[in-house]
Amino acid sequence: MRSFKMVLFFLMYCLLHGIPAQAVGPVPDPFLSVATMAHQGPGPLILLTTPDGTGGDLSTALTASGIPADATITLVILDSVGMPIPNFPWQDIWIQKSTNPITFCNSNYWHPESHTDINGMTRWILGPTVKGFHEGPIRVFVNGEALFSPSVDLSLVNPDINGDGVVNLSDVALFAADLHSGYQFRSDLHPDGVINLSDVIPLASGMGSRCN
């Protein structure tokens, strides 16, 4: 019913503005369109990110216990009768958190790599450039509407612990406090449920990273 209303709205818009009806493309169905993660096991998956995007692509994610896992996200966009929508623009597809927004460096959203292909498919492969850490899950939006498929159980950690867009001594101070006071998700940079020396390596590697 919702998809029918969307189609009707577009047809009325075309009539009012003198646009031929055939100029209106297929309308994505948020119930039938679906986003899935390559990893099919239990989540969450956690991806190391940095403000300058050098944290790694989605295939380098880890489980919460530190096991490598592929978090590549695939989206298939279908219309109201289940037909794929090819060449749907990537600019109208994005990821954000289910609750509070993710703070990206250079964009309001995290877009996929390309328009949809002939099968209505596109993917997120590269990691985003972000400020701070973000506990999932995340959701896929198409045309500004969240899909009704389950949210994607992906979280982001970042050596930019304080979220100011640069990795520096301020982040080291927060890491040191978490190291001595107990577990904090934000400082588990090598996700394994423990803050220890393995988390120092990504912190040191990220020093100087900043939003461009």
Protein traits:
3 helices; three-stranded antiparallel β-sheet; four-stranded mixed β-sheet
List the helices and strands and how they pair.
Layout: H1 2-17, E1 34-37, E2 45-48, E3 61-63, E4 68-69, E5 73-76, E6 93-97, E7 121-124, E8 138-142, E9 145-146, E10 154-157, H2 169-181, H3 200-205
Parallel strand pairs: 2-10
Antiparallel strand pairs: 1-5, 2-3, 3-4, 5-7, 6-8, 8-9
What is the structure about, briefly put?
By secondary structure, this protein is of the alpha+beta class.
Distance between the termini: 44 Å
Q: Can you tell me the overall shape?
A: elongated
Low-confidence stretches are 17-23
What strand line-up does the widest sheet have? 4-3-2-10
Mean pLDDT: 88
State the domain count. Answer: 1
Rounded radius of gyration (Å): 20 Å
Structural class: alpha+beta
Fraction in beta strands? 15-25%
Compute the number of strand runs: 10
Largest sheet: 4 strands, mixed
Helix-strand sequence: HEEEEEEEEEEHH
Q: How many helices does DSSP assign?
A: 3
Helix content estimate: 10-25%
Textual characterization of the structure:
With 212 residues, the protein is an alpha+beta fold. The chain has one domain. Helices cover 17% and strands 17% of the residues. It is built from three helices and ten strands. The chain has helices spanning 2-17, 169-181, 200-205, and strands at 34-37, 45-48, 61-63, 68-69, 73-76, 93-97, 121-124, 138-142, 145-146, 154-157. The strands form three sheets. Strands 4-3-2-10 form a four-stranded mixed beta sheet, with no helix packed on it. It has a three-stranded antiparallel beta sheet with strand order 1-5-7, with no helix packed on it. It has a three-stranded antiparallel beta sheet with strand order 6-8-9, with no helix packed on it. The longest helix is centred in the first third of the chain and has 16 residues, at 2-17.
